[in-house]
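Recall from the previous chapter that SMILES is a line notation for molecules. Here it describes zinc ion.
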Amino acid sequence: MKYYVGIDLGGTNIVAGVVNEAFEIIAKESAKTKAERGADAVIADMIVTTKRAVEKAGLTMEQVEWAGVGSPGTANKATGKIEYSNNLQWYDVPLVAKLEEGLGVKVFIENDANAAAYGEYLAGAGKGCTSLVAITLGTGVGGGVIMDGKILTGSNFGGAELGHTVIEVDGRPCTCGRLGCFEAYASATGLINLTKEAMEAHKDSKMWELCGGDISKANGRTSFDAMRAGDEAGKSVVDLYIKYLSVGIANMINIFQPQILCIGGGISKEGDTLIRPLTELVNENNYIRDPEKRTKIIPAKLFNDAGLIGAAMLGLEA
Ligand SMILES: [Zn+2]
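With both inputs in hand, we obtain:
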């Protein structure tokens, strides 16, 4: 059996794990990122956390094939540097060199959303496929594109920012500075905004009851739960949300035509309530008319583990 280390570097947590060649996580350790300490302190903790995970797996670093990192921001695989991460406030951090020195194994880096897509491709929703697009509906919208086994990064490692494509001209402001981005509508944040607006407009909606009368308690489930309880305003929020989602996803499918498009994040746990009407709308706008050849839209399977498994297996792609 061969073993690999994956490190999922996030704004809040560092998670390091040992993954075997069957793509199973056999040991995992974590630490707080506390990025305000600066890159060197974070990298030192990445090394310590990794060594703890390897020890927990009953292995030594010598028995590990390589380590891979999914990091926020622009991960330049040619130079081994994280060029810029807004989340971590990193500029030109030589992550590969420092980790290779500290861990004594070869290190690969990749953008975190791309690494998560690669994990889903290898071991989750895309297992057995040759192409996959993954989107994660969270605070923002993470995206990754795998074509013929390769992670699509663009010429400068900044590609596949699927959330920052406009679906409404002069629409809602996005955190990136553009107006009308897919992310501003399709993220959990976007859904919560739609929910709050509908609550303001419909004071008799069940959504108020579900939030205990406190609009700040509205979350990604509020409108779905209200719809299930027969609430019209809740249903209209869900319908509108799915419509926005379908426009962005139809765009991605018409560009990439992957075998699988998988959707992760808390909202994907709505399952068929989300996937069935979404697929219907996307299919109406799919350039491919043959239903057999159309992209399948399915929920992600690995959730939080996708980034770790994808990171651990980055050496397969290189
Ligand atoms: Zn944007």
